[in-house]
Design a protein that fits this description.
367 residues, mainly beta, 6-stranded antiparallel sheet, 5-stranded mixed β-barrel, 4 helices, 14 strands, 10% helix, globular, disordered N terminus
């Protein structure tokens, strides 16, 4: 990758957000939801079946949708201003968190990673206190949804378009519009409405990008009791990471290595994030590492993650391997509240059920 990104590289880049779970959408009108989540693979899209108790509330006329539709095209935020100009410290923190070592984002004339577009518009924990927060129309629309019983929310995906790179010192302004509200849809999560907002981002009046954000406001479906033992979510296996899972099946933890610059990378990616090279081979990790960071999951309970089916709490850790790359996994061999940053661990392979085996890390003796 060159020191400066060519502006054409920033156009028409689409980001698919992975936050959505269980979106087994039962209506052909829902489009562009390319969900990559282990809980939702191989779910067929189908029309609602009136015999299905989950969709009995579908009426010939959706009066709530008619009231919601009038908000399409209305402002959700007007005259918004970024709290800070584009700046190198935030760029550096972002790159460190993402593991992105591209030379384009550092040096004498850096640009901001394009996927930071939304970050420059966010208000932080205190929100936008200068009067540029959510509009009255936006709050009214959500009050209608809440009043109709659609009180739960999940982010489903986002799309971004980049018109030119942002550089330190750029001052961000933005306007957000309620772009669309779907008709009522039934998903595995429940029945609700997809709401899409579009944020147009500018600097000095010049358009620099567009951010579309889609959520589902829904009424949770009643959960059926599972039949048989709880299973862990299945990994999403595709052409970019199939080799990794083939290695796991052979009890080998394979790390990609760029054949142009020899940079190691994990998780697997289609190209090198250091030099942009597309060719690679693999090296087998030795299996030794340390806990770089960790969290303890208390809620929601997930029986498949508890050794006795109790569903937690359990520790999820970011493991730094001796080779310098990191992997998210579980730490076993110690209670969840004994996991510590810097704890030495070593690789094992855990068969969670007859059809799934996963790389996990056991706390080493004396750790």
């Amino acid at each position: 990758m060159s020191e400066r990104e060519d502006e054409d590289d920033f156009r028409d880049f689409e980001v698919q957000d992975l936050d959505v779970r269980d979106l087994d959408v039962r209506d052909h009108d829902v489009r562009d939801h390319e969900v990559q989540d282990p809980d939702v693979q191989d779910h067929e899209v189908r029309e609602p079946d009136v015999r299905d108790p989950d969709v009995q509330d579908h009426e010939p006329r959706d009066q709530l949708y008619e009231r919601l539709a009038v908000y399409e095209g209305r402002a959700a935020a007007t005259g918004g201003r970024g709290k800070d100009p584009v700046n190198e410290p935030m760029i550096r923190h972002w790159c460190e968190a993402m593991g992105d070592t591209s030379a384009a984002y550092r040096g004498a004339d850096p640009v901001a990673p394009p996927t930071m577009l939304q970050a420059w518009t966010m208000g932080g924990l205190s929100g936008h206190t200068d009067g540029t927060g959510r509009s009255a129309a936006y709050d009214e629309m959500f009050a209608l949804l809440d009043g109709g019983g659609y009180t739960s929310v999940v982010a489903t995906d986002c799309e971004q378009e980049y018109l030119r790179p942002l550089r330190p010192g750029d001052r961000i302004t933005f306007d957000t519009v309620i772009e669309s509200v779907s008709r009522r849809k039934t998903t595995k999560l429940g029945t609700g409405y997809f709401v899409t907002t579009r944020t147009d981002v500018r600097t000095d009046g010049e358009p620099v990008g567009t951010h579309r954000f889609r959520i589902l406001k829904y009424r949770p479906a009643q959960r059926r009791q599972p039949v048989g033992p709880a299973l862990r979510p299945r990994p999403v296996i595709n052409r970019d990471n199939a080799g990794f899972w083939a290695g796991v099946a052979e009890h080998r933890l394979l790390v990609q290595r760029c054949t142009d610059c020899a940079t190691l990378r994990l998780p697997w990616l289609p190209g090198c994030n250091a030099c942009g090279g597309a060719e690679w081979d693999t090296v087998e990790a030795g299996g030794e590492g340390t806990v770089f960071s960790h969290v303890v999951m208390h809620h929601p309970p997930f029986p498949a993650f508890g050794p006795a089916g109790e569903g937690g709490p359990y520790a999820v850790a970011l493991i730094e391997l001796a080779e310098g790359v990191r992997i998210v996994s579980n730490v076993i061999g110690v209670p969840y509240d004994k996991v510590r940053v810097g704890m030495p661990v070593h690789l094992e392979f855990l068969r969670t059920d007859p059809d799934l085996e996963l790389p996990v890390f056991r706390a080493s003796e004396g750790g």
